[in-house]
# Entry
Amino acid sequence: MNNPEAKPADEKLDFKKILPVLVIILVDLLGLSIIIPLMPLYAARFGADAFVIGLLGSTYPFMQFIGAPILGRLSDRVGRRPVLITSQVGTLLGFILLGFANGLPMLFISRIIDGLSGANISTAQAVVSDLTSEKTRTQGLGLIGAAFGMGFILGPIIAFSVLIATGDNYQAVAFTAAFFSLASLLLTYFWLPESRRARQGEYGGKSPFSFSTMVQALGRPGISVLLILMFAQQLAFGGYEQMFSLFALNRLGMGARDTSGLFVLAGLFIVAVQAGFIGRWSKKYGDRWLVLLGLSTLAIGLILTSTTPQIPVPWFNQTKIIAEMQGRASTQSLNVNLPPEANKGWVGIIWVLVASFPAALGGAVLHPAINSLITKSVSREEVGGILGVSAGFYSAANAITPLFFGSLFQWFGAPVPFMIGGMFLAVLWVLAVRNVKAPETPRQPKSVG
# Structure
């Protein structure tokens, strides 16, 4: 009689427990999502070409690659809450500097500071892992993804509104992002309880992180394939995220407001998938199925994006776009090619909209599904550390791919990096079919009965 009662309780997510961290991450991501669509255009305003924009895009994840694993392991030692607060302080300072930026050096400094302290998402994932069982963990991590998607709906809407209200003042958008970062910091300080108690001496005086930790993780049979997969899929998807605004400007003549609108639509779709479907799909088909689904749909989305015809949107006005991009810089400093005005129409924007749905589906399911498989392969004591290592591989990919995508964009044309990314994901899907295993389940009946 006890077993039937225990099983449903174990499988049911306690939403009230994870609500505070979901709200905090949503507010935190509002700040991030407000500025992400504008960063390539922000840099172009100060005369950056596609390669330099890629270099700027690499700065934050490269610094995060160094900082996030350290903070992840520290969260296992001293607790999640102090690490999350430290991370949010760095994000706040980075956005404030971004608002005061008057040239490319200040843009780079702001991204360095934000990146070094950027463990917000991995620490939040560790909190959710502390508060969920194995059977509800994918759903919990999926809800973090849904908060991310909700941020990508509301953030671009807020950015769009600020741009209209301030006459396309990018600095005002940066200060708005700083405001939401401060709000997230205050919510964490006053509302979020510690989900894990510090355990003195648990680590035997070992350093909380060394780069050998990542190498050691690659030697663990149940985790190595998943970490490689996290790194490899983000090589393709990270480039798509980082360079999409520049691609839309080059192919369709879309400025910051238009790009923000596309991010809103993608966010709506991501929220629908992660909040409404990923938990059910995980329970019905398993995390391995989700990984394969994500790789295939993301590959289709990138390949379709690469074939977008260079037909600017019907409302494209080259003079207005140049004026928007000019900012405080001179018109001659703009190093991004715009499409010709003669061939305007709806085909290009419709094509991109169609391509964005499979790309958004892949992006919605891959990250939480891979991380869920990773957390199910380690003990609870290692969850924070292994998610930090996962974030390290993720950030390493993000550090490399903007340079790679930016170089291809600059020297071979806008469609080339997206086509290469899509084909790479197709190969990755074949490798995943052979090497990604479903988590072992024999121990689950033991925890129930």
